[in-house]
Amino acid sequence: MVGNTAEAEDLTQEAFLQLFRKIATFRGESAFSTWLHRLAVNVVLMKLRKKSGKETSLEQVTEPDDESGGPRRDFGAADLKLSGSLDRVNLQRAVDQLPPGYRAVFVLHDVQGYEHNEIAEIMGCSIGNSKSQLHKARMRLRELLHEEIREKAREERRAAGSASNSED
Amino acid sequence: MSATNCNEFLNQLEQWMEGERSADARAHLRTCADCRHIVEDLDSIHETARVIGATETAPSEQLWASLCVQLEHEGLIHTQQRHWTQAVAEWFEGVFSVVPRPALAGAYLVALVGIGLALAVPGYRRFNWGGNSTRLSARLNRAELDTIAMVESDPAVTASLEKNLAIVDNYIALCEKSVQEDPESEIARDYLYDAYQQKADLLAQMSERGAGQ
Question: Which of B8, B38, B45, B62 is best to mutate for the A interface (most A CBs within 10 A)?
């Protein structure tokens, strides 16, 4: 979720420390695994928010809609397709750019395979909210990945242009 | 011509991706390359994310070591101290790797009986604890010096003696600390005498080995 092994290990350690510090507060109202995941996700979200400089409460895990009230609806250039050009490296890079709330839901659902009801419990939100955040996260990822493809194409054109100029 | 246009399809895209697919949406997707393009992209993202999930690696061993240190530092866990029986097991293993059992005679018995008799005196452990403990400790120290002198010509025996003395002395130090912390504890005293007895046994066996050179 943080896209960096060293940072992920720091957060793993912090999550386990929190587990030991807070184990007495577990009252058995939910499954222990859910409680533990919630604790771990909170540790990660706290870290991500500190990094982004936003001081928001942990309960506020979801993102406000943008001006249109939902994900942007551009189709993207017809010649740009992710299939075939998408690999785990550039997807990971795009995931790193997602806002914390989107990223948490996307990682829990698409990367780790949790169901929306489980994510709702872990994140303390509704199932509908989890679905909506996931959809927005995927749409935002698509935009980011398309931007990357476009940028790469521009660089290639620039490189080709400068190569032909030097030949002249 | 499908009844759903692109905007309507995009309104249903979230449901589509969740598997809720109406006949109208299906019909639209068959005829609209742009919307098909979006769905294919989202499917690609979903599939690639699953690959990331499948290739996640476990944290390093260093992480767990560091976590243990931090938890101990905060007093959240206490590393279990080695039980004395483990120390004894290691000690026996060390001794019998060097000293053959039949060789246990003469000096071994002398030292064992000497210390054993001292420990077996009725009421010994209850009265004059400090004086007896000091005398025993001093006697063992003298025996240790004698034993070291006896085995010093054999590097293998010397190495084994040093290794086993370190284990037993460590055990004695732990027991002495327990007795100092709780001088009235019978259990702590029993453990300390037991530790002295083990050191006496070790020195006797090593003396036997040295005498046999």
Answer: B45
